[in-house]
Amino acid sequence: MVQSSSISVSVNFKSKMDSLRILLYSLIFLLSVFGNLLIIMVLLVNKRMRTVTNSFLLSLAVSDLMMAIFCMPFTLIPSLLEDFIFGAAMCKTVTYFMGISVSISTFSLVAIAIERYSAICNPLKSRAWQTRSHAYKVIAATWVLSVGIMVPYPVFSTLVPFPKPNNSTGHMCRPDWPMSQVEQTWYVLLLFILFFIPGVVMIIAYGLISRELYRGIQFELDQNKDCNVLKNGLNDTTSHSQDDSDGCYIQVPKKPPVMELSTLSASATSKTDRPRSNTSEAKLLAKKRVIRMLIIIVAMFFICWMPLYSANTWKAFDQRSAKRALSGAPISFIQLLSYTSACVNPIIYCFMNKRFRKALLATFACCVLPCRVCRRREGDEEITGFTATSMSKFSYTTVSTAGPC
């Protein structure tokens, strides 16, 4: 009697866990597919969005879409059925595309971090080589490298039979390594190439960017102090003149007529230009938000991928204890956590950016409005957005890091 009740409890618990897994996998799958498809559509349709950083984001979106399509269904269904029902050929194909998508996604994140570091910390030097052609070459290199690195998966992946509790034979798709030393070497290599080294590079790059932003914040605060001191000794005309630079660069004019002319031109252009929040307080808040976003990027990378690489390395060196502790639902949730990066990346890199959201709305508006209206709107954006190119280093830092899209 006690044994039957314990069996029924375990069955109920398993059914609840399976329902939870199906719900979470379906939610992450839908968010990943639709989120990355939206990014791909917006970046391909809008010509003005085809920047260097967005080229890497397009590659990242494609790899994350591949991860969602080839990883999630072929991980969840065999786990629920306790049998890989798709055949030996599909086993090799799925594992290969799984590895390629994860590798490209990681390399794209590293490329974005290095590109942002160069553009923000060394803006003058980076202009010589940060072109779209160079970005295309880097993206092609990451794809070729990923395709080459993951060759062992289709070579060694096969269907391994195992006995099931109902006396039937199930199959699991896994690499059948010739020796345990080869398996250990492989997973240690993946741990360093796809997790440890990229993580260190991202920490260093975003750490240096955060330091540059912090210096910008201190610069803004110092300029505000000087601004408050200088304002007391200037006339009302000078104190109310607008300045599009980053700090408060107030200079006492040597020739009053020139100052009067500049004041008149500033007041005249302020009537025609759209109002923009270029105050020092807004810039300080923007830079603080960027620093928080960079911390989130690094934290999410380690949260999503550290459990999976740790589990794979543990399984390679001590398969019995790892299989006993992680088999079933635990390893399934660990894999789901890694797949979460496919829907987190679009949110962090694009949907949190105001410019991308405007481009997304404009793209959907163009599907409804006539083509003439869309072309006219794009032309207006090019005219009004021209003045944004003349920025100082700290202003460029705020805009470029806050919105790679």
UniProtKB/TrEMBL annotation:
Function, as annotated: Receptor for gastrin and cholecystokinin. The CCK-B receptors occur throughout the central nervous system where they modulate anxiety, analgesia, arousal, and neuroleptic activity. This receptor mediates its action by association with G proteins that activate a phosphatidylinositol-calcium second messenger system.
Highest rank taxon of the organism: Eukaryota
CDD domains associated with the record: 7tmA_CCK-BR
Parts of the chain that traverse the membrane: 22-45, 57-81, 93-114, 135-156, 186-209, 290-309, 329-351
PANTHER family membership: G-PROTEIN COUPLED RECEPTOR, GASTRIN_CHOLECYSTOKININ TYPE B RECEPTOR
Family: Belongs to the G-protein coupled receptor 1 family.
Major location (coarse): membrane
Domain G-protein coupled receptors family 1 profile: 35-349
Organism: Electrophorus electricus
Protein localization: Cell membrane
Pfam families in alphabetical order: 7tm_1 (PF00001)
The UniProt record lists the keyword Disulfide bond: yes
Record-given protein name: Gastrin/cholecystokinin type B receptor
Gene3D superfamilies referenced in this protein's UniProt entry, alphabetically: Rhodopsin 7-helix transmembrane proteins
Cellular component, GO annotation: plasma membrane
Protein topology in the membrane: Multi-pass membrane protein
Alphabetic keyword roster: Cell membrane, Disulfide bond, G-protein coupled receptor, Glycoprotein, Lipoprotein, Membrane, Palmitate, Receptor, Transducer, Transmembrane, Transmembrane helix
Molecular function terms from GO: gastrin receptor activity; neuropeptide receptor activity
InterPro entries assigned to the protein according to its UniProt record, in alphabetical order: Cholcskin_rcpt (IPR009126), Gastrin_rcpt (IPR000314), GPCR_Rhodpsn (IPR000276), GPCR_Rhodpsn_7TM (IPR017452)
